[in-house]
Design brief:
Number of domains: 2
Shape: globular
Strand content: 15-25%
CATH superfamily of the largest domain: Glycosidases
CATH topology of the largest domain: TIM Barrel
Strand order of the largest sheet: 2-3-6-7-8-9-10-11
Oligomer: single chain
Order of helices and strands: EEHHEEEHEHHEHEHEHHHHEHEEEH
Number of helices: 13
CATH class of the largest domain: Alpha Beta
Largest sheet: 8 strands, parallel, barrel
Structural class: alpha/beta
Radius of gyration: 20 Å
Length: 385
Amino acid sequence: MGPLIVLAIALGLSIGFIAAAPSGTSSAQATSSDGAEGPTLQRGLNLSHWFAQVRTTQGFSREHLTTYTTAADIALIRRLGFDHVRLSVDPATISAPGNVDIVQLDRLSELERAIRMIIDAGMAAVIDIHPTSDFKMALERDNDRVARFADFWHDLASRFATLPADRVVLEILNEPQFQDRYRWSGVQAKLLASIRQAAPRHTVIVSGHGWASVEELLSLEPLADAKVIYNFHFYLPHIFTHQGATWGRPLWRYLAAVPYPSSPDNVSPVAGGLADDVSKLLVTRYGYEQWSGARIRAEIAQIAAWAKKRNVRVMCNEFGVYRRVATASDRMRWIADVRTALEIHGIGWTMWDYAGDFGLVTKQAGQIVVDEPLVSALGLRSEAH
């Protein structure tokens, strides 16, 4: 790779999508066609707010990149029983200030350092390109941006192609924001082809056209590539998992103590405390939908059936509950229900997230405090035992 990497944003779009069923299983354990064993991605954790979603005045400073997540954090994640982490990377993190088209090599070196730290701890690293909404929406309307993104991926994949294929996985784009799923199919196929030119041995993660939802996964036509994992995110129902959140639907910020499982009776007090009629309707509807472990298992079973029918591998690389106002016991119950439903079908998972708003740990005065009930809900071993 040259001293400057042109940040790419995919090629011209008379792009047809590639449709052919690759070999594989519904599990995230891969075996590549050249005989090399692919990555084991069964139980993972998202590392957010490190190389993406930065909210501090430091921004993407070198101090932030070297101190936000440390070797002690990585060692803890491994001790708890995780086999991989998903590392969110905003292209701006590795770009020159004010110019997302040019990669800054010292920042790329920090990303490489982080990846090697994860690998050295005995885990796999999913490199998740996780840009802003503006970046993603530009891909839908601008063919030139798509072309540059394809070039970027070629250069980035070239840089990481020498790292072990059973330890490094490349994720094309977090939660695409395309209205047109056919255009996204073409864009994604083009980006995959660009990656494959540089990194033919590495597993690549793909997803549906907008927000990586279950419905979007089920609408995907499989790609002609045996080393692909099809990914979805699971936050259903949002009225529970995102209660209290200050982004997304305006309703969410006014919700608190929304129960799970749901029933008409147990949501009635929450609905009664809302002034807005539409919000009351949505909360009441949530109660009558009767979300429970059985309902979640029914959702996940549809994904497993889709994967089996097409003989492809799937995984859930985001699920979790915003923790600010949700009742702790209900949050643990939902997480345990989702995790169990995934594991019934051998579907690998990656919880959102390590130390953020949905987090497994809280950092207080330099100390890492582990949410032990959450560790149990994930079926992992507690540090306390």
